């Protein structure tokens, strides 16, 4: 499915009126790559560090008994559990 989406996107990026050097299309792809590298990747990294810090505050505020009770009785699953940390 995503391979087909690439063909659709390329028809909008590399347009016939921009041939043969495709300066506009190449510029657009460079801008997309820069947005990924300079905004999205660092933003995602910062978000998951922030989420881990929130979980650390909650988890470290609990006593050992509260932690044991939480682990024994929690209905939280997968990434909702307090003891889980996201890799970054």
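-> sequence recovered:
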């Amino acid at each position: 499915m995503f391979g087909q989406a690439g063909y659709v996107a390329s028809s909008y990026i590399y347009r016939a009126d921009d041939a043969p050097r495709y300066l506009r299309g190449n510029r657009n792809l460079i801008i997309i790559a820069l947005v990924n590298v300079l905004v999205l990747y660092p933003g995602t990294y910062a978000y998951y560090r922030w989420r881990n810090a929130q979980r650390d505050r909650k988890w470290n505020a609990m006593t050992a008994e509260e932690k044991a009770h939480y682990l024994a009785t929690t209905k939280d699953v997968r990434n909702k559990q307090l003891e889980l940390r996201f890799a970054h």
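The chain has one domain: 2-80.
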